[in-house]
Design brief:
The N terminus is likely disordered. It is globular, with a radius of gyration of 13 Å. The protein has two helices and ten strands, in the order αβββββββββαβ. Strand 7 and strand 8 form a beta hairpin. It has a five-stranded mixed β-barrel with strand order 3-4-5-10-9. By secondary structure, the protein is mainly beta. It has one domain. This is Lipoprotein. Keywords: Signal.
């Protein structure tokens, strides 16, 4: 199923990269994994990421394209089987086309920034979703 999803809400991207609380990994009963911000924030970035999402070999949801990017979802996002449920109730599944506001950040020190996310899921650039896309 292809659809455009606008992601509302905000993430703590800038603060997390500065060393505050790290995102947590949520694992479903089917073994799928998403990275989620540990707390809400009013920090926002203005990059736009568009494309289909899919499950990586490591089991994490990524933004597909030239090279996949791990997505860090906003606080309050849940995982129901293979369906990501955003805080506003929007559902995302593998194969959906999405449009996300936020920012790309290198994962040079991903082990420090994303300690709960399996290393197999860490991509060279991680997309920290934030802000609303119109």
């Amino acid at each position: 199923m292809n659809r455009l999803v606008s992601l509302g809400g905000v993430l703590l991207a800038a603060a997390m990269l500065a060393g505050c609380s790290s995102p947590s990994a949520i694992t479903s009963s089917s073994g799928r994994i998403i990275a989620v911000a540990p707390e809400p924030s009013d920090a926002a970035e203005d990059a736009l990421a568009q494309g289909a999402v899919g499950w990586s070999e490591g089991g994490c949801l990524t933004l597909e394209g030239g090279s996949p990017n791990l997505i860090v979802f906003p606080h309050g996002t849940t995982l129901d089987g293979d369906t990501v449920v955003l805080p506003d109730g929007t559902e995302i599944q593998a194969g959906d086309d999405v449009s996300l506001g936020g920012g790309f950040h290198g994962a040079i020190s991903a082990a420090d920034q994303l300690p709960d996310v399996p290393r197999a899921c860490i991509t060279p650039e991680v997309f920290w979703a934030s802000g609303e896309v119109q």
